[in-house]
Design goal:
312 residues, mainly alpha, single chain, two-stranded antiparallel ribbon, globular, two-stranded antiparallel sheet
């Protein structure tokens, strides 16, 4: 039996939707310029989470640990763009898609080999989960009371960070030269190159920007789930990929709305289902996705009858 959705559940669902929206932006940026659905995106987040766990194990302060997280994810993003995406750019989308599958499994197994060196699977990022805000004795993973609701500090932080990222991206895409070039490349890459857009610069920038978002998500998810394992963020990535399709993968902002929508719906269903029925949550979410796609195959937020002209 489904329970009543209360304000507490809605607040938690908004926080989850904000994190999923960020992941959708990162996936959508690469798709916009490369026409590539990067299935290895979750492994970028995992790499950042392992960097946080490593810094925690070495008793590093939180800030250097976060910097190491960003360095690891950005370094891996740069390597993937130069060594994989760029050489395969002229091949079919199917070849690139299968390649990202292979990369995802390779990175996951590398993490497994490194992780089990001590005979156990899973590394704890204790320091990032226990960090406190200035002037506050409680950790950012604890809750505070707001109008009778127990709101986790990390939920508020996730919403603020996601809003800041989206606002910054809107300004970058609409007001800067590189942003306009990304939009032009997303609309028609061949014509954009004829008009002087440098493909390597635009694609490289999009991949690195997507990596920075992945590092941000790694920090947010690691605070909420400090135990890092080789399948860290894998489930979230699959759900977000589905959300991107539901929202409308051909445009960045509809894909972002799709990521938020599926995160929000997941949070609502998780709060509404009884504890002993939450095992059916993935089935309920994907059943809802099927219904949406049957009604709106082009995407929930796509305009009826409109062509997919601008994708970023």
């Amino acid at each position: 039996m489904i329970g009543v959705v209360d304000a507490q559940t809605i607040v938690d669902a908004v926080g989850l939707g904000a994190v999923y929206a960020l992941m959708a932006v990162g996936i959508g940026l690469v798709f916009g310029v490369l026409r590539l659905v990067n299935f290895a995106y979750g492994q970028l987040i995992m790499a950042g989470a392992y960097a946080l766990a490593f810094s925690s194990d070495q008793d590093w302060p939180v800030l250097p640990g976060i910097l190491l997280c960003f360095a690891a994810v950005l370094g891996l993003s740069f390597a993937l763009e130069r060594l994989v995406f760029r050489p395969l750019r002229m091949h079919s989308e199917a070849v690139m898609l299968v390649t990202t599958f292979a990369i995802a499994f390779v990175l996951q197994n590398i993490a497994l080999v490194i992780d089990v060196r001590d005979g156990t699977i899973g590394e704890a990022a204790v320091s990032i989960a226990g960090v406190t805000l200035p002037g506050d004795s409680g950790s950012i993973n604890q809750a505070f009371s707001l109008w009778g609701l127990d709101v986790r500090r990390i939920t508020v932080i996730a919403i603020v960070v996601a809003a800041a990222w989206l606002a910054g991206l809107a300004l970058l895409l609409g007001r800067t030269t590189i942003g306009l070039q990304m939009r032009a490349a997303a609309t028609d890459f061949r014509t954009a190159r004829l008009l002087g857009v440098k493909a390597n610069a635009v694609i490289g920038f999009a991949v690195m920007l997507s990596g920075a978002i992945a590092a941000t998500v790694a920090v947010l998810l690691t605070v909420q789930s400090p135990l890092v394992s080789p399948d860290f963020a894998l489930r979230e990535t699959i759900v977000v990929l589905v959300g991107v399709v539901v929202g409308g993968i051909d445009r960045l902002w509809t894909a972002t709305l799709g990521g938020f929508a599926i995160g929000f719906a997941t949070g609502l269903l998780a709060g509404a289902l009884p504890t002993d029925k939450t095992v059916y949550l993935p089935a309920a979410v994907f059943a809802l996705v099927v219904v949406v796609l049957l009604i709106r195959p082009a995407g929930l937020f796509s305009r009826r009858g409109s062509a997919a002209a601008e994708r970023v």
